[in-house]
Design a protein that fits this description.
The chain folds into 2 domains: 34-97 and 279-389, Rossmann fold (3-Layer(aba) Sandwich); 102-274, 3-Layer(aba) Sandwich (Dimethylsulfoxide Reductase, domain 2), CATH 3.40.228.10. It starts with a strand and ends with a helix. The longest helix is centred in the N-terminal third of the chain and has 14 residues, at 50-63. β3 and β4 form a beta hairpin. It is globular and about 65 Å long. It has helices at 26-32, 50-63, 76-88, 98-110, 118-124, 142-147, 193-204, 219-231, 250-263, 280-291, 378-389, and strands at 2-3, 15-16, 42-43, 46-47, 67-73, 93-95, 127-131, 161-165, 184-186, 213-214, 217-218, 235-240, 269-274, 305-310, 325-329, 341-344, 354-357, 364-367. By secondary structure, the protein is of the alpha/beta class. A 7-stranded mixed beta sheet has the order 4-3-16-15-14-5-6, with helices on one face. Strands 9-8-7-12-13 form a 5-stranded parallel beta sheet, with helices on one face.
Amino acid sequence: MLATCPACGLLCDDINVSDPLTNTCAKSISFFSQPSTEASPSIAGKAVSLDEAVGHAASILKSAKQPIFAGLSTDLSGFRAAFNSAQQVQAPMMHMNAESSWRNTKVLQTRGWQTTTLMEVKNRADVILCIGTDVVSHNPRFFERNVWNKEALFTDPQARDIIYLGGEHLDASAGVSPNGKQPTVLPCALEALPEITAALRALILNKPLKVTTVAGITINDLQAIAERLRQASYAVLIWVAKDLDYAHAELTIQNITEGVVALNEKSRAMGLSLGGSDGDTTVNYAHTWLSALAPAEHDISQHDAMVWINSFSPEKPMPTTKAPTIVIGNSNLQFSTPPAVFIPVATPGLDCSGTLFRVDSSIVLPLKQTRASTLPTLAAVMTQMDALLT
């Protein structure tokens, strides 16, 4: 059976879920190899029925004055159901990747941007500039599927120029073309990227710089990149917000996206934010549709009850809080201290079907149920809880 893998934002839809897995990567193998654990709902670590667990969770939320729904590692239908429940108790919502997602959102809200899709990268890009990231640590099959793909329509994949700008100790091996063409690699500390990208943006605009180096990178090298971007038929500037983990990282993203605007005055260029995991792209878009507001970060300590939703990634830690916690998620979740309520639910793409937006936001892909399971879906649990919250 061919299935779609939700382990990263690429949502590769060619995974053969036979034994052994084929057309896949380490992230995909880890996801599809999760054990099928039919865990029981529990209250303070004691096994109870689903009805009892949902009832106790509802009573905690009804008693709370400032609850929050966090984690939100789920698919579209799961998030929509969780959103309805959060509305019932007037609780804000925060995805586990909110810190990195918000870096992109700040730029998109204040300046806008011009971005492309994975399909356009495959078919048109002749220059790809990766800024502060190796990409493959987040999206392992990006180069395989979208850069070196022989089915590209309008360019020779092996002739593409790959450039890495910024980041230390990057593994640039994925940027080596099948014919051996080497990428250009200009490393620097990530914290220097705001000034480096500002310098690159100035050079794209043909503004003179009265220095010879910026954070260890020569102006001549940056000028060569600017010139190659200007001469490209279709340049793509790539970043991963999660890698830009330093103060005011949004300035780097703004420099990148404004550089794209400058390039488009006389040539053709686009930006592309990669990464994506735990349904964060889907949650960000759905939250905006349903509330007219982009999801933001919140201080968990300021809330007197937390609903933590994590369907996809049992290895990811839950934030600590003294408030009662209702955990709804993957049956393989482990706890050092049992939460007030734990309700195991089906994982989309394994135990049930589902739907996710790809990281480039251009298409929605279906997730297939790939194994038998009796676990309830998150949507079913939330619907049952809604009836008790009214």
